[in-house]
Amino acid sequence: MERALPQRKTVLRHRLPVRLWHWLNALLLYVLFTSGLGIFNAHPRLYWGQYGANYDHAWLGLERFGSWITLPAHYDLAMSRHWHLSAAPIFAFALLFYMLWSLFGGHLGRDLAFRRGELAPRHVWQDIRDHARLRFPAGEAALRYNVLQKASYIAVIFVALPLMILTGLAMSPGMNAAWPWLVDLFGGRQSARSIHFIAAFALAAFFLVHMLMVLLAGPLNEIRSMISGRYRVPEARR
Amino acid sequence: MILSRRSLVLGAAATLAGCDRLAKNEAVRDALFSAENFHKWAQRGLMARDALAREFRPDQISPFFRPNGTANPNTPEYKALWRNGFADWRLHVSGLVGQPLSLSLAQLHALPHREQITRHDCVEGWSAIGKWRGVPLKPILDAARLRDGARYIVFHCADDMGGGRGYYESIDLVDAFHPQTILAFALNDEPLRVANGAPLRLRVERQLGYKQAKYLMKIEAVASLEGIGGGKGGYWEDRAGYDWYAGI
C-alpha cells in the first residue's frame, strides 16, 4: 500500500569538476573504446615483447570485432585512427587536470582517501557482503564513498587510465625516439599493445559494474546527482 | 534488467552510425584530421631533432621480417631491371636541387654506409625488427645541393599497389636529414629481396611502416606537396586518408 514519503534531505553530492570530467570521460571512453576496436581489427592478434607479426607466436588471436561496436561502423583503419588520436589528447589532458585538481583541490584527501580502519579486513569484508546482498548505504553513510568504491575509483583514476595513455604512447614510433624508457617500461611495443588491450577491457568491465551499481542503487537519484550534483539522501534503514 | 542486450546493441550501433554521420560533416572531419598536427607538434617538441629511434641487439631480430603491401611490382619495366640484377637501375635525384643526380647501385654501394637494427612499426599494429644497411640520405641531398624553398623530399616508387597510381611518400627536411634516415639496400646482411623493396628502399625510423617506401626510383625535392599524386603527400594519405605525419 502506498504511503506518503517523508520529505527527505537533498544535498550537493558531486561538485562541478567531478560532474564535468565524468561526462566528458563517458563520451571519450566510448569514442576511444569503439575506435580502438576498429584499430585492433587491422591486426587482431596480440604478442608479448619487442616485435610480433603474423609469423610470430601470438598469445591471443581473435576474429574482427563486429561493426556494431566499432567506430566507424565498418572497417576503416584511417578513420578509426582519426577518432582515436583526436580523442586521446583531450582525454589525457583532462585526466592530468583532474588528477591535479583532485590532489590540490582536496577531492583526493576528502573523498577518495581511505579513512582510519576502512582497510581493516573486517571492514572490507563487511563492505563486500553489503554489496553482495545489495544493501546500499543510507543516511550519512550514503554521502561518502564506501571502501570498494574508493578502491575502484583510485584504481581507475591513478592506475588504469594513466596506463592506457602510457601504453598508447609506447606504441608510437615517434615516442620511441622521444622517450625510449617508456617502451622499456612495458617490455616492448607489442607488450604495450597487449597491456593497452587488456586495460581497455578492464575499463569496459568497470563501466559495466558501474552501470549496474547505478541501476541497483536507484538510477534516477544517482544520475541526477551526476548531472545537477543534487542527491536525495536515502533514509536510514530501521 | 532495464536494458536488454538487444537494445544495448541497437543503441550502440545507432550511436556509432550517428558518429559516422557526424564525421561526414566538413568541420568535424577537419577537426578529426587536424589531430595529426597536434601530435606532430607535441612529438617534435618532446624530442631532440636528431633523437634516435631505439636500436636493438642482433639476437633481438625477428626470425622472419614480414613484407607488406606490394610483394613484387611486376611491371615490365621493373621485371627488366630485376632480370639484369638492377645493373641498369638508376636513382634519380631532381626537383629543387642545384645538381640533379643519377646514381647506380654500384655508386650507392661505394658511398659510406650506416647499419641499424630497428623496429618496423606497421600502422596495423604488428612490428618486426630487422637490420638495415644503406646510405644516409643526408650526403645525397648535400651532393644534390637543395635549393632555397625546398621543404619536402618526395620518394617515387616502381610499384603502383595494383591501382594504377604510383606509390610515393614524402617527408620533411627534419626527417630527411635525420641520421637514421637511410636508403637501404640490405636487410639482415643480405641484399634486399624483391618482397622487401629491392633494390633500394627508404627507412625513416621514427615513423610508421607505410612511410618506408620500397622500390625507390626517384627522389624529388619540392616546395609543396600539392600537385603530386592526390596532393596529400603519399599513396595511403591520398587513397585512404592516413595521416601524413606517421609518428604515432
UniProtKB/TrEMBL annotation, chain A:
UniProt cross-references to SUPFAM superfamilies, sorted A to Z: Transmembrane di-heme cytochromes
Pfam families the UniProt entry points to: Ni_hydr_CYTB (PF01292)
Keywords: Cell membrane, Electron transport, Heme, Iron, Membrane, Metal-binding, Transmembrane, Transmembrane helix, Transport
Alphabetized InterPro entries for the sequence: Cyt_b561_bac/Ni-Hgenase, Di-haem_cyt_TM, Hydrogenase_cytochrome, Ni-dep_Hydgase_cyt-B
Places the protein is found: Cell membrane
TM annotation in the entry: 20-40, 83-106, 153-175, 195-217
Domain Cytochrome b561 bacterial/Ni-hydrogenase per the UniProt entry, residue ranges: 13-229
Topological type in the membrane: Multi-pass membrane protein
GO MF annotation list: electron transfer activity; heme binding; iron ion binding
Gene Ontology biological process terms in this record: respiratory electron transport chain
GO CC terms of this entry: plasma membrane
Family designation: Belongs to the HupC/HyaC/HydC family.
Protein name: DUF4405 domain-containing protein
The organism of origin for this protein: Sphingobium indicum
From TrEMBL, chain B:
Superkingdom of origin: Bacteria
A family per Pfam: Oxidored_molyb
Domain Oxidoreductase molybdopterin-binding: 87-222
Protein name: Molybdopterin-binding protein
Species, as recorded: Sphingobium indicum
